[in-house]
From TrEMBL:
Its main location: membrane. GO terms for molecular function: nucleobase transmembrane transporter activity. It is found in: Membrane. Belongs to the purine-cytosine permease (2.A.39) family. InterPro entries: Pur-cyt_permease (IPR001248), Uracil/uridine/allantoin_perm (IPR045225). It holds the Pfam family Transp_cyt_pur. This is Nucleobase:cation symporter-1, NCS1 family. It comes from the Bacteria.
Length: 479
């Protein structure tokens, strides 16, 4: 890919309506492979990641089939992350800015706002999951708070008084970490991922010591699907893995832009996705399977598992670690993305920090505890998000790799001149808007129509493929 200075040659400066210090190309790119690896560890090692991985082992498949599905799904994520990482790493600009090359300098606000709103939903969900872990600590230390943990006695909008207190405390803590800037965030995520591994291995070791190695079972539920009948269920599991990572995968350019080289980014992705996720998934199923002989029931929530240990220190350490880890994923995946996305809408009025705070406020208004409270709702949420994220991904990849042949004129990303390469029609590329809209509508059909429910887990793939094909066809002759 090349980045030619066409705008500079014409003597045009970056337009203030399209740029600020956060959106402009980076002068220094300092992240190495470990930083990218730590980013993915923070993304995977959360309560949400644990619960999602555990839910896949309850689909009625054998353990080895689930592991194959997990590895296939994360392999797809790895491949696509490398695709979306390259243009941002080589130009030094975030996701909404690189979208200007495909959607137009103003049209890029369409994918930016969609991704930003999705991040708001996930930000609220992850904050809620972290607050639930904090509730466990507080109840262990202060049993007298138990009545305030009841929604029936002291509840508002579906959340208990204690839940509101924990949610608010973590909401403020995350905002404080984010406000300090990207360098502090980098150091924070460098710590979070490894910290969870330490606690996970300690938890697994404790359960093994109680139940013995022979109690480990990689099949958490009854095996209901065998032979060819298991393939549709495995494909569904693969699709859900991709949907779970679809958000950070789409805007991974927000982070790959900091990579010192594309090779370093790819190494970090390899360690952080296929390698790391498989190890984490094995730890999840080992830990969950051992809860049956040790506690008498299957527990797929790590916080609930930690709460059963007869040690206040262990409970506090485990729950706080999972809370911190969930804060890590929340900041990197759901705070930074809308910060760039909303700032892109009006760079002069909305700074990176202001964009992040818009997302934080919105995350409370959606009452996220109502979006992620059981496996059925979890899967429906993932399917809906996938239907909107897939088309954005497909259009961006088609635009960059097929239509533009990896050519980006960086300076033209920041000009409002009609002579600019990415002005298209009044700042919008109608082909990209049409392809995204049609693909999203079609991808949502199986999610909303019960008769097509079997296709719902593939909403991301349907949307991505349609977005890619439609935009490629609409752009024929414009390569």
């Amino acid at each position: 890919m090349t980045a030619t200075a066409t705008t500079a040659e014409r003597g045009l400066a970056y337009d203030p309506r399209l740029t600020n210090a956060d959106l402009a190309p980076l002068e220094k790119q300092t992240w190495g492979s470990y930083n990218i690896f730590a980013f993915w560890m923070s993304d995977v090692h959360s309560v949400g990641g644990y619960v999602t991985a555990g839910s896949l082992f309850l689909l009625g498949l054998s353990g080895w089939q689930v592991l194959v599905a997990l590895l296939a799904g994360i392999g797809i994520v790895y491949f696509f992350c490398n695709l979306v990482a390259k243009p941002s790493q080589q130009t030094g600009v975030p996701y909404p800015v690189i979208c200007r090359s495909v959607f137009g300098v103003l049209g890029a606000n369409v994918p930016a706002v969609i991704r930003g709103l999705i991040a708001v939903a996930w930000y609220g969900i992850q904050t809620y999951l972290a607050s639930a872990a904090l509730d466990v600590v507080l109840l262990k230390l202060f049993p007298s708070l138990l009545p305030y943990a009841s929604v029936q006695q002291y509840g508002f909008l579906g959340l208990s008084a204690l839940g509101w207190a924990s949610f608010t405390a973590l909401w403020l803590l995350q905002a404080a970490v984010f406000w300090t800037g990207m360098e502090t965030i980098r150091r924070f995520i460098d710590f979070c991922g490894p910290a969870v591994y330490v606690v996970m291995f300690l938890l697994a070791g404790y359960l093994i010591a109680r139940a013995g190695w022979g109690a480990i079972d990689f099949t958490l539920g009854e095996v209901e699907h065998t032979g060819w009948a298991s393939l549709p269920v495995m494909f569904g599991a693969i699709a859900l893995v991709v949907s779970y990572f679809s958000g950070p995968m789409l805007n991974f350019g927000d982070f790959s832009r900091y990579g010192r080289s594309f090779a370093a980014v790819k190494r970090g992705n390899l360690l952080g996705l296929p390698v790391n996720f498989l190890v984490f998934a094995v730890l999840v199923v080992v830990t969950a399977s051992l809860t049956v002989p040790v506690f008498g029931e299957l527990l797929t929530d790590p916080v609930a598992t930690v709460a059963r240990i007869d040690s206040t220190f262990a409970i506090v350490l485990g729950a706080l670690t999972f809370s911190i880890a969930t804060i890590g994923i929340n900041i990197v995946a759901n705070f930074i993305s809308p910060a760039f996305d909303f700032s892109n809408v009006s760079p002069r009025r909305i700074s990176w920090r202001a964009g992040g705070m818009i997302a934080a406020v919105g995350s409370v208004l959606i009452t996220p505890w109502n979006l992620y409270h059981n496996p059925e709702v979890i899967h429906y949420t993932l399917e809906t998000l996938g239907a909107f994220i897939g088309p954005l991904f497909g259009v961006l990849i088609a635009g960059h790799y097929v239509v533009a042949r990896q050519q980006v004129d960086v300076d033209d990303l920041f000009t409002m001149s009609p002579a600019g390469k990415y002005w298209y029609h009044k700042g919008y590329n109608p082909r990209a808007i049409i392809a995204t809209t049609l693909a999203s509508l079609v991808a949502m059909v199986p999610v909303l129509v019960p008769a097509l429910a079997d296709a719902a887990p593939y909403s991301w793939f349907i949307g991505m493929a349609l977005g890619f094909v439609l935009f490629t066809l609409l752009s024929r002759g414009r390569r």
